[in-house]
Amino acid sequence: MVAKPGRLQASYTSGELDPFEYDRIELKFYGTGLKWAENIELHPQGGFSFRDCTRHRVELDITSGRLIPFKNSSGVVHDFALRDSNLDVIKDGAILTTITHPMDASQLTEIEWAHRMNTLFLFHEDVETPRVYYDKATLTWGCDSLPYENLPNYDYGGTYDNGIPAEWEVQFVSFGGGYRFRLTISDLETVSIQLSTDSDWTQCAADMQAAILQLPNVADGVTCEVIEDARIKVIFGGDENSGDAWAVSADSLDDADAAIPCYKLVVGIPPGEAIISTEQGWPNCGLFYQQRTIVGGFKGLPNNWMCSITGRYFSFDTDLDEANGAFVVPLDSEGGEKILHMVDGRNMLVFTSEREFWISDRAISKTEATVHVEASTHGSKKGVPVVKNEGGAIFCHKTGSVISEFRYTDVDGNFISQPISILSPHLFEDVCDMALRKAKSSTDANLLGIIDEQGRMRAGYLLRQQDVTGFGRVTSGDGLFKAIDVNSNNDMNVITERGSSRRFETFEKGLLLDAAIAFDNGDASSTITGLDHLEGMEVWCLGDGNVYGPYTVADGTIEVDDPVQTGEVGLFVPPLVETLPPSREIADKTVLRRKARIHSVWISVIDTTSIAIGANGQDPVDYPLRQYDENLEKPELEDGYTGLVEIRGLRGYVDEPTVTITQVRPGRLTVRSITSEAKL
């Protein structure tokens, strides 16, 4: 057969494309996309490899449904596996201890958390905020309730008798009859007030009261009383004047030697009840920010958040009027909008059920107005973490089917929200959890792991500044993915459900089998035991560099064909890649539609030990790669092939010819490029 020019594809950074894009050959992403991408890792430089597989770490309770990373003040990394009313502390693949917490299994999918040093706060609006802690002195773990101190009151519409009006004293020094003065009440000045020539202080108090009530920021209920001559008390009574947001000062208008100092006598306390409580509910989310604890999305006030006093993480006493004081911030909304996530970053970010905001001032201050700048109106999904990536924040829309990035741009001078799942929307539905693993080597991209309510997992490979955004599928046989996290060791962990049990597993670089467990027989043996977590499943063995299998585990044991000393046993989860069909365009906007076939394929591979190739809808066939040494002694997994794999004479005419790459036995697989020659 005479060779003809073929179509080369060496980049796959757009991942699996939506079926609606199969004919969009004009898109720049078409040349870097795939029709199907399963169990592969996309490389930013070009090509793809078989994904990292998971190592079995420990069995979990069947109700385990959430993973949270935790690093204590000494830098020791743990993972928390939350289940019904309990939390398992996992370190190095073992459960160190189990802690009781107040949340049931149905609430785990909606929780938020905040972590600092040896403390973790868990947030759910129906549960008094649990505090999980590690006591470094006693080396023990525990869980109690977050000790909220001096919570502000709020009027929820009940009947309250605990309000205390604010009181100020106005003292007149060297102030004679006939002198005039002026009061300033919270930045608004009264009309001038004159003391009678006979210094009638009772009449002066009445005149002061009348002048104060004329101010637009003061409601009925304010009274002025004479304490003694030259001392008058201002009482801010009345429901609309409740609280302590008053400031009083005065100026003499006629005599520069006269002075009118003002003093606060009583701190005003508005009537009401604690803003969060067992009766009114608890915060929905929170974070540590600028040496404060910030909590928000209260069940009774879903569009409010509040912050503690700076440096005092549990005190929410609003009496302190300085910049570092505690305060409550309402978010302007039409109703029904709830704060779901708060994230620290370039600015503090607030994600609600309807919109996305950023706080314009980087410094959180009680003395400056807090300005929420609306950036987008997608709304985020409750319980799905917001993860940070390259200076941006990645969040899931409230529909559960769109993943967007929230990022500040100097061009707009604003945060903007851009969907990053736009090329692969068919992969996302009912998203329930996600986590991001930073690149582990110079040839990696950041890995975004996403899990949905059906137990499916998606992998996104992201280097946004280099225009790398590609998504694909992650499957593990019949296993379902239930939760995901990335800890401070940059390890991505998942809770998987296999059969009737759940396990904690870790994605491990270079591992070729899922749910894998290592064995060491000492002396070579054909019997491998300790496989109880794989009971009844079809497994493969990678022993002493060779591939054996498949076998079915019975009584936690398999018998391998040859005696082996060391290796791994686990589940084979083959990759599956299908290319997009070649372009049929013969002129501008002109295509040739008829059945066609790809008859020749050249695949450039690197250090590959197993590959199966198919085309035109035909079943893939295993291609022999092994180059035996002279004495046939080199183990299979030590004999990787680098070079071109050439296949000619492929058959089968179809409407949309494609190339399929997979495996029929475990092994390494790295594809650098695919060149296909077609009869169109």
Describe the protein:
It is a single chain. The chain is mainly β and 680 residues long. Among the domains are: 7-52 and 575-679, Jelly Rolls (Sandwich), CATH 2.60.120; 166-266; 514-571, no CATH class. Helices cover 2% and strands 46% of the residues. The strands form 15 sheets. Strands 1, 5, 6, 52, 55 and 57 form a six-stranded antiparallel β-sheet that branches. Strand 38 and strand 39 form a beta hairpin. It starts with 6 loop residues before the first strand and ends with a strand. The model has no long low-confidence stretch (mean pLDDT 93).
CATH architectural label of the domain at 7-52 and 575-679 = Sandwich
Oligomer description: single chain
Number of helices: 1
* Strand residues, percent: over 45%
Major pleated sheet: 6 strands, antiparallel
Rg, Cα atoms, Å: 34 Å
Distance between the first and last residues' Cα = 16 Å
Strand-pairing-aware structural class: mainly beta
Instruction: Label the overall shape.
Output: elongated
CATH topology of the domain at 7-52 and 575-679: Jelly Rolls
CATH level 1 class label of the domain at 7-52 and 575-679 = Mainly Beta
Show unreliable segments.
none
Helix content percent band: under 10%
Number of β-strand runs: 57
**Mean pLDDT, all residues:** 93
